[in-house]
Amino acid sequence: MKTKNILTLTALVSIISGCGSVSRENFHQELSTPIEKIIYYASLAGNSHNTQPWTVYVENDSVLFIKVDFSRKLYIVDPDARGLFISMGAFIENLVLSAGSLGYNAEVEITASHKNDSNVANINLSKTQKNGYNLSQIERRRTLRTPFQNTEISKNHLNKLIDNNSEIFYYSSSSEEGKYIAEQTLAAYTQQAQDDQAKQELANWMRFSNSDVEKHRDGLTTSGMGITGFGGFFIRNFYKPEDSMKDSFIKAGVEKTKEQTENCGGWLVITQNENSPENYIQTGRLYQRLNLACEDLMIGFHPMNQMIEEENFEKNVNQQLSLPGDIQFVARIGYVNEYPPANSVRRPVKEIIEYAN
Known about the structure:
The protein is an alpha+beta fold. It has 2 domains: about 25-140 and about 345-355, NADH Oxidase; about 155-335, NADH Oxidase, CATH 3.40.109. It is about 45% helix and about 15% strand. It has a 5-stranded mixed β-sheet. Strands 5-8-10-9 form a 4-stranded antiparallel β-sheet, with helices on both faces. Strands 6-7 form a two-stranded parallel sheet. Strand 3 (about 105-110) and strand 4 form a beta hairpin. The longest helix is centred in the first third of the chain and has 20 residues, at about 80-100. The N and C termini lie far apart (about 70 Å).
């Protein structure tokens, strides 16, 4: 009987391990031109809910037009399109880095002037010497949602991250400001998680089943959210996106967020002097640089912008922290022992690109 139970358990473990979440490594893209390669690496940028809100119009081998796909906008939690243009900024930063690695200089002209402007930027490419940037750094970049070490970030590492940039601020988790950010983040997350419209919007981007991941190649997957093991197996096979709106799922999310806010080395905050698409895009470029640099230093990076997404929190937070300019981006950071491979899926490059006739 004991032997039978062991065999049954072994079989169950085998089934579960063989039914893992579909992730980026399951998809291979054929990239036939330098421009396709540049856009592929650009698409690995961080972005809200993994909506991937970008399209690229290729006029010729040297002129690209970066555009927003507003069908991928989060209208409830991001009504002013701040998060949208931050995502576009991260895309542009990756584009510039990958172009340099592949032997192109990318000159960026920001064209977006208001929140409904679909024309984001013009890119002019010119051939130059390869700059030696390691593209695997872009491939490894990811959001980590696990608990981090509470150790304060070292001064040496902070100098590398902030690099005298007057728009980036760090607060240790033990500081009064750090404790305040953790408290407000949890409270704002809880409020947002209980809002019916926000719940529906989130459910629209849930990709629980492997078939949904393969179909859409965007959104929030179990592996991307860090839901692994038996829990991940159960959700992939027995949950539907609308189940994320249930009280039990929301409660689990609040508990996980509490654990996250209580376990980190501190918080990075990015500010800008004014609220405009151009400044949001600059914020996105800074965010992407920070995320890439953190991975290189074995520092986990987790955007947590809820306290500035919820209007009744945002004004109070800006007043309390009293920073120059308005807070545009918040991230939880902390040392980690390992950096698992990046696993969030991406749409095919050929779906992103539109070529001139």
